[in-house]
């Protein structure tokens, strides 16, 4: 009589364990950069097996993108202050807390995407596109409230304006992006552009 073995169950990591792992990945990125980061180093730092890491994520690009996604605050996505200006300001309040600490990290990743298309694709899929959808929901609420026209020409360039503000200050002024800067930029540039006919 043949003995039937039960299939091995592959359970997911607990949320606490995932949080610890993501923090370790970001710490390693800050220490050595994307190029030098290895799955071996992540496994050693987190006391996890490489098999577990590859089972949960396809590889280093997906793990890094997921770690960055989980490090971002999510409070703003459900925020509705009643105005586009208030919603954008709330977005900044939720997002600038760790901006200075992660400045060099983001610079390194911005360089890495040029030579690692798989990293670029993972960041777009797991981080950039979901954030753009949340931002579009904020803009759509403004359209529904009558604050801006649905066909406002600048609407298609909102993400570009916001990303440009971040990269320009770092590049031109060598200063971190802070809440005051983002609020002034939004009031002077973003909102007038969105409200223009």
Automatic annotation (TrEMBL):
<feature type="DNA-binding region" description="H-T-H motif">
    <location>
        <begin position="38"/>
        <end position="57"/>
    </location>
</feature>
<dbReference type="GO" id="GO:0003700">
    <property type="term" value="F:DNA-binding transcription factor activity"/>
</dbReference>
<keyword id="KW-0238">DNA-binding</keyword>
<dbReference type="InterPro" id="IPR050109">
    <property type="entry name" value="HTH-type_TetR-like_transc_reg"/>
</dbReference>
<feature type="domain" description="HTH tetR-type">
    <location>
        <begin position="15"/>
        <end position="75"/>
    </location>
</feature>
<dbReference type="InterPro" id="IPR009057">
    <property type="entry name" value="Homeodomain-like_sf"/>
</dbReference>
<dbReference type="InterPro" id="IPR011075">
    <property type="entry name" value="TetR_C"/>
</dbReference>
<dbReference type="InterPro" id="IPR001647">
    <property type="entry name" value="HTH_TetR"/>
</dbReference>
<keyword id="KW-0804">Transcription</keyword>
<dbReference type="Pfam" id="PF00440">
    <property type="entry name" value="TetR_N"/>
</dbReference>
<dbReference type="GO" id="GO:0000976">
    <property type="term" value="F:transcription cis-regulatory region binding"/>
</dbReference>
<protein>
    <submittedName>
        <fullName>TetR/AcrR family transcriptional regulator</fullName>
    </submittedName>
</protein>
<dbReference type="Pfam" id="PF16859">
    <property type="entry name" value="TetR_C_11"/>
</dbReference>
<dbReference type="InterPro" id="IPR036271">
    <property type="entry name" value="Tet_transcr_reg_TetR-rel_C_sf"/>
</dbReference>
<keyword id="KW-0805">Transcription regulation</keyword>
């Amino acid at each position: 009589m043949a003995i039937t073995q039960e299939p091995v169950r592959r359970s997911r990591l607990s949320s606490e364990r995932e949080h610890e792992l993501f923090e370790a990945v970001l710490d390693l990125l800050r220490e050595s950069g994307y190029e030098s980061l290895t799955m071996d180093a992540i496994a050693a730092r987190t006391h996890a097996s490489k098999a577990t890491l590859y089972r949960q994520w396809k590889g280093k690009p997906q793990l890094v993108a997921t770690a960055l996604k989980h490090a971002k605050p999510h409070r703003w996505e459900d925020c509705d202050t009643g105005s586009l200006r208030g919603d954008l300001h709330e977005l900044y309040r939720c997002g600038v807390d760790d901006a200075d600490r992660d400045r060099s990290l983001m610079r390194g990743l911005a360089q890495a995407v040029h030579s690692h298309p798989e990293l670029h694709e993972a960041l777009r899929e797991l981080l950039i596109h979901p954030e753009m959808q949340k931002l579009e929901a904020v803009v759509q609420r403004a359209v529904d409230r009558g604050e801006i026209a649905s066909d406002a020409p600048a609407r298609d360039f909102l993400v570009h304006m916001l990303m440009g503000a971040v990269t320009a200050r770092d590049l031109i002024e060598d200063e971190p992006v802070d809440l005051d800067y983002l609020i002034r930029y939004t009031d002077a540039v973003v909102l007038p552009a969105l409200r223009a006919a």
